[in-house]
Amino acid sequence: MTVPVSRSSSVAVPTRPPVDACPTGHRRADERINWASSIPFFLVHVVAVVGTLVVGVTTEALVLFVAMVWGRTWFITAGYHRYFSHRAYRTSRAFQLVLAVGGATCAQKGPLWWAGHHREHHRHSDTEHDVHSPLRGFWWSHVGWILCRRYDEVPTERIKDFARYPELRAVDRWNGVFPWLAAIGCVLIGGWSGLFVGFFLGTVVLWHNTFLVNSLTHVMGRRRYATTDTSRNNLLVAVTTLGEGWHNNHHYHQSSARNGFFWWELDVTWYVLRALGRLGIVRDLKVPSAEVLAADRVADGTFDVGEFRAHCARARSTVADAHLRPGATPRPLVPGGPESQLAAAELEIELEKAQLDEVLLGAVGAADDLRRATRRSNRPAVPERG
Length: 386
Ligand SMILES: [Zn+2]
Ligand SMILES: [Zn+2]
Description:
The protein is mainly alpha-helical. The protein is 55% helix and 1% strand. The protein folds into two domains: 29-288, no CATH class; 299-376. The model is unreliable at 1-18 (pLDDT under 50). One zinc ion (ZN) binds at residues 81, 85-86, 118, 122, 250, 254.
């Protein structure tokens, strides 16, 4: 039997928190790619390909390439990401510095810059304040956001906990030195082939490998948990990034040192961290409880608000684009003439679009409520029969 709910009930209806708007796909002036300052980035790609073709590939260079890609990827995943961004485990001040320096050799700026912006991504995932949401375009999330000037500075407010260490501030400030040290090491070990194949080609592959986590794992893959963003679990990216492809797991439980939640979810970063834990180099590795692992599953009936928000974001983007059509430009009013009728019609269209936008934002807020209501822990227990 259903219980009718009276609209005139005196029970206070909880007011919804303000909805964080979805991204609309438009660029601010300082979000356009700065081609001049991006020249070194593109140049590294050219040098890597041309240099490899000219000097050829030796066995030593191939070993260096593997070390430069996946050895350094570990410092990004275990260091910049799981440690500096999420504090998923603890370690000594000395090993913290090792993680910072190892990460800085990857030519992805310093640990404070990297982790600060990554915290921003989690704070505003797939909303208009997200630094690199693919809802603003795949290439924007993959690389565009790095090539504009808007995100050049360290977001100090977000990373105060680590910014208090002078040695980390120094690594961050002089981050450009460390990739060159890696390059010199490659020349000493593998000669010119070591430099072009090991360092330059290794750096290009390492970059795009890392960037895939920001782009592809918000676009392609399966969603186990009903997070408010578009994060997905992607096996391919999990393999190439040593476990970071389990991105939906990660967005669901960000403080976990383990992103592959189950034994079949390959997570090399975690295996190494666990080994370092046994050696006493790292400690207090955080992992989700069995209760957390079982909650908020899409397959279990929790409303997938992240997908819904993404659809609303695309709809809002379409509405906003319609505003920008040349035909929608406001014209001067001429009383009584066809121009004034046109202007009145255009004004009406603008108002309708504003209303539509409001409806979409309201729908996003309602979807958030629905997700909370359908969470397993919020569902009333069904009484046993018999
Ligand atoms: Zn993260
Ligand atoms: Zn993400």
